[in-house]
Amino acid sequence: MTAEPPGGRGLPRRRLLALAALALPAACSTAPSAPAPPSAAGAATAAVPVPSSAGPVVSTAAVPSSGPPSATPSPSAPKKAAPARGGPVPATAGKAMFGSYLALSGRSLGQSLALRRRQLGREQRIVHVFYPWDGYVPSSEPAVAAASTLMVSWHGAPYRQINDGSSDRVIARVARRLAGMRRPILLRWGWEMNGDWFEWDGSHNGQDPGGYVRAWRRLHRIFGEQGADNVAWVWSPNWNSSPDTSWNRFTRYYPGDEFVDWVGVSGYDFFSESPRTLFGAVCSAYGERKPIILSETAAVDHGGGSKAAWIRKLASWVEDTPAVGAVVWFDTDTQGDSPHNFRPDTDGAALAAYRAMARRPRFGG
């Protein structure tokens, strides 16, 4: 199958806005003493409504409880197990899954995976693929090892086509396909919704983040009705918003804790942005409640060993940021007319840094 063009087609058009330094909560702190994130046995989180405040939201408050403290339970009262952080793809405390989107010139997915396996001495824990909204979705991905988790970025559609029910059959069909794969799947639908380069972003849908939230929840419901309980939902904004206006803050698109298993973020080193600049705001807003996945990231070469240096910075930042539960590199040199080469093996120093990052215990999730 010829893959759909991946995310990032809008990269050259992105307004890359520097973020101010953030006062991060514990899970996103870079202090060595930062506590580890809650384990899978931690308390369940309550659904959070879409924020309506105008400014950037940097949440340092605890999620409200579902009610007042209860009296001492009866010995016979069964205890309800808290859901795992990450849903069907649980996060592991202190570890980050490591993977990539692989599209290398002249190589199939299987050949690309084999190359990276030889170079890194390990499997990709996550393999990232892109599927069209209303087109061919395979029944399996035989090139992806059973021990690897498949991350599917499923293209979105205009909100009205979803919210009026006219796309219910499309949604149900894809839900059955993914359920039929019988493997845990990270589903990243309608990513980078706070940009202005996709038909499912707010700019192309009447500046209505609430419409996106309703669409997300409709998809979530239909997937549940189709028995797609192997799917973990990844909500994944871009690191900065375009346009950078109050209605388009990424927090306004959040569907609510009940409907999200992982919070992702896209962020690339185009102009020597630090990992903290790229990922700090999303981590700050949600890292106490949800595991964070760097769902698209990579570095361009600015010369002088810059790519290797940035990879080392990324590895160190993830080491010191316990909220991060997964890192997915955008490993490609085939971005249409884009001049950027995101491969980590463009020079020996970059590959050595990438290999060292992949082999760190922190990336053994």
TrEMBL record:
Superkingdom per UniProt: Bacteria
Record has rRNA-binding as a keyword: no
Keyword Signal recorded: yes
Residue stretches of biased makeup (Low complexity): 29-65, 77-88
Compositionally biased region (Pro residues): 66-76
One example of a Gene Ontology biological process annotation: substituted mannan metabolic process
Signal peptide: 1-36
Single GO MF annotation: mannan endo-1,4-beta-mannosidase activity
Active-site residue numbers: E192 (proton donor), E296 (nucleophile)
InterPro entries for this protein: GH, GH26_dom, Glyco_hydro_26, TAT_signal
Keyword set, alphabetical order: Glycosidase, Hydrolase, Signal
Ranges where the GH26 domain occurs: 39-361
Pfam families documented for this protein: Glyco_hydro_26
Positions of the UniProt region annotated as Disordered: 29-88
Family as reported in the entry's similarity comment: Belongs to the glycosyl hydrolase 26 family.
UniProt protein name: GH26 domain-containing protein
